[in-house]
């Protein structure tokens, strides 16, 4: 019988990371947007150089909560942080910009392999990034989660951000990261996962499959998504699922499993429809984060 997936067990399962702190911070540019300042920064991380957008609301009376905004996947390795701040891509993905307009400081890095972190002219580099780690006993997910923590370190250092109030939001791939990140970094107090809660037991279907980022040797033998959620008991979760969405498959089972365990910190909302983040659900997500971080 495996031990419960607490913080220590999680890091053991995901494997080692290279000890790191952010360094060599550089501001690459700024622009004034409607209601907030958009800042592009870069800093050193173990796998290279992070490329990050920060949205800072205007006219703050006091430091504001910090929300990490994880971009989606969608097979678009040429696109990452620019979509969540509304510079490119789909309008329903601009949640970093919309949260900044509501008074939150938001931070949105490119994940490894996306946008400025893509070294193959927009081609899929995820399986290379995974396999080159697996052969030396590491996982891509551990490095991705470490970079989440490093981004939070940077965001929390800003004078406009309240380091005691930290949230997370993501859609699809970002929704999966929204489940894992609070288990890795206990500073995250509220997390919204939209259309990304599919458990490992459902992912083996041919119309689903596994993204390289979440391939962890042996994980599904002993654990599943409910265990990851249970590993972050101090975080309030909102999982939004579409009843016609492949990447939301299994949401009802997750809700039942959490209820059977007596876990009350995660709410699962299943709506009609497919894979998207419509304004009604984004408003629900923003209200949830505001309530949880107030």
UniProtKB/TrEMBL annotation:
<dbReference type="Pfam" id="PF00326">
    <property type="entry name" value="Peptidase_S9"/>
</dbReference>
<dbReference type="InterPro" id="IPR050261">
    <property type="entry name" value="FrsA_esterase"/>
</dbReference>
<comment type="similarity">
    <text>Belongs to the AB hydrolase superfamily.</text>
</comment>
<dbReference type="InterPro" id="IPR029058">
    <property type="entry name" value="AB_hydrolase_fold"/>
</dbReference>
<feature type="domain" description="Peptidase S9 prolyl oligopeptidase catalytic">
    <location>
        <begin position="148"/>
        <end position="278"/>
    </location>
</feature>
<dbReference type="InterPro" id="IPR001375">
    <property type="entry name" value="Peptidase_S9_cat"/>
</dbReference>
<protein>
    <submittedName>
        <fullName>Prolyl oligopeptidase family serine peptidase</fullName>
    </submittedName>
</protein>
């Amino acid at each position: 019988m495996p031990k419960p997936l607490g913080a220590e067990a999680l890091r053991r399962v995901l494997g080692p990371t290279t000890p790191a702190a952010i360094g060599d911070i550089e501001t690459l540019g700024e622009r004034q947007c409607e209601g907030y300042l958009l800042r592009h920064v870069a800093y050193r991380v173990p796998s290279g150089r992070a490329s990050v957008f920060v949205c800072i609301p205007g006219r703050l009376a006091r430091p504001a909560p910090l929300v990490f905004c994880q971009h989606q996947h969608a097979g678009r390795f040429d696109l990452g942080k620019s979509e969540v701040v509304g510079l490119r891509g789909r309008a329903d993905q601009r949640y970093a910009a919309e949260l900044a307009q509501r008074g939150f400081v938001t931070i949105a890095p490119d994940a490894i392999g996306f946008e400025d972190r893509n070294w193959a002219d927009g081609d899929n580099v995820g399986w290379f990034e995974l396999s080159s780690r697996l052969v030396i006993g590491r996982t891509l997910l551990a490095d991705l989660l470490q970079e989440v923590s490093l981004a939070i370190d940077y965001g929390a250092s800003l004078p406009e951000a309240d380091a005691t109030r930290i949230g997370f939001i993501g859609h699809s791939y970002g929704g999966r990261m929204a489940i894992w990140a609070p288990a890795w970094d206990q500073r995250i107090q509220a997390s919204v996962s939209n259309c990304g809660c599919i458990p490992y037991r459902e992912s083996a279907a041919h119309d689903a499959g596994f993204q390289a980022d979440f391939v962890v040797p042996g994980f599904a033998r002993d654990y599943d998504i409910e265990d990851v959620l249970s590993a972050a008991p101090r975080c309030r979760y909102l999982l939004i699922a579409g009843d016609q969405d492949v990447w939301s498959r299994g949401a009802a089972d997750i809700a039942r499993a959490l209820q059977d365990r007596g876990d009350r910190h995660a709410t699962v909302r299943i709506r009609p429809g497919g894979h998207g983040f419509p304004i009604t659900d984004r408003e629900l997500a923003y209200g949830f984060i505001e309530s949880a971080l107030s």
